[in-house]
Every structure is written in C-alpha cells, then in structure tokens.
Fold this sequence. Notes:
CATH architecture: Orthogonal Bundle
Strand content: under 5%
Number of helices: 8
CATH class: Mainly Alpha
Radius of gyration: 18 Å
Number of strands: 2
Number of domains: 1
Strand order of the largest sheet: 1-2
Distance between the termini: 15 Å
Largest sheet: 2 strands, parallel
Shape: globular
Order of helices and strands: EHHHHHHHHE
Structural class: mainly alpha
Helix content: 25-40%
Amino acid sequence: MVYVRKDVSTLTRTERLRFVNALLEVKRRGEYDEFVRMHIAYYTSDGENGLRAAHMAPSFLPWHRRFLLDLERALRRVDSSVTVPYWDWTRDRSTTAVPWTEDLLGGNGRSPDHQVITGPFAYAQGKWTIREGVTNGEFLTRDLGRARAPLALPTKAELESALADPVYDTSPWDSTCTKGLRNKLEGWGTGGDSVAWRNHNLVHRWVGGAMLGGASVNDPVFWVHHAFIDLQWTRWQGQHKGARYLPADPPDPGSEQRGRIIARYEKMPPWGVTPDEMEDVSRIYRYA
C-alpha cells in the first residue's frame, strides 16, 4: 500500500510524537548509528580516489532516495504509522519555525559550544549520544544561520532555477558541473558562502554543527531535509516528462570518470540496486 510523506509543518501533535519516538527507538536499538557509519563510508569527494556513490556524482539523488527508504523502513518497524516528513526550507526559514520546536527536533545550539539543549535530541535527555563522527563530541550541535558569518537559506527562486534545467546531469559528472539538475540541486559551486553552496549544500551549511560533513546523519534534520530534496527530484520528473537519469552508459575507457561514477543500469553500493530502479517509487510512497 502506498503511504504518504507529509510536510513537517502539517504534522499533528500525535504525528510529531510518533515520529520522534520512532527515531529515538531506532537509536536505542543501535540501528541509527549504522546509518551514520554508512554515510561516512560513502562520502567520497572529487579529490579522493575511487567510486563516488553518495556525493559529487549523478547517483547523489538515487543513492539518498534508497538511504532514506532504509531509515523509513526502520522507523516503520517501530511504528507502522510513521513516515519521514519533509522540511520546506523555502517557506519555514527562521530558527524558531518548524522543525526547530521543542516537540520535534529541538532548537539551536547554545553559545559557545553549539550544544543543542532543547528538545528530545538534547544530550541532557540521555537518549541521543553521538557515537559515530569525525570528532569525539558526544552531544548534538547546531549553529542555525551561522551567527558569526550569517547565511540565508536557499530561496524558492533558487530552487526553481535548478528544477528548470531539463537535463538530469552532464559531463564531467562531478562537483564542477554548471548544467544539469543534479549538481544545481546538490549545490556545489565556486567562490565563497552562498556562491560556493547552493540548495542542498547551503542548507547543511545553514544548520551547521553536526550537519557539516560526512557525519551529518547525526542530526535528525538530515532526514527531513533529504525528504524535501527527494520531493524535488519527483517534481522535476513531473515537469520534464521522459527525462531520465544520466549517464545512461558508463564513461568511455580512458575517461577520468571511468569507475568513479554510476551509470543508469549499474549497481549502487551497498545495496546492489540501480539508479534505474530508484527512478519510480510511486508504488511505495507519495508526497502530500
């Protein structure tokens, strides 16, 4: 049966509680930290050797779609009524708006250590200790809006500009692409601040703290952010009928991208599913 992912701002009080409790239970069972480890393992950049599956590559969208589905399935094993909501950061833009409420994800980090001290994921609650990361910190951190050098969340116009591109991705299939939905949505650029980071990446920077880098999954906002990114891929597919994941075929032998990116019918690690298999999820879920 097809289930529905809702806008996080429309969740009822009961739906918020069920979502939070399911996240806490998945964490208690030890499953959540597996997701953190996986994302760290597949966070490979242009400057590194080897396959880029999760970032800076065409498979950014299908890889995270499957990743999100796995987390959602873990939540639904706890409570079958739960789905991952999405955060529309083009509309809910303040540091006190949803999802930064006491009954959802909690608020901003305190000064000067950025420790989150409100909400169910605050370290003091004893249910959300950071065990996997790039630092030794045990508590969740945030720096919403980056107080010392303020950033603004992406606007609706900036997001729509990415969706207007009719091509999924283009050569050289990495963080330097200036055309194609994938990198415009993932948001790698050049220069500083909002020029260097757009859409998806800019949101990670705006949240700050734990949301920076490969261990960003440690902040539950990761999932509601990526649900919104996934929704944009669905919207783009509806706006550009017949547009498909690219590249359809692997790069030619001798290409610098040979063996570094995943073509439409190649398997994505660690699951062995292809981007082609992840293009249509209409029989699994839809967005409200």
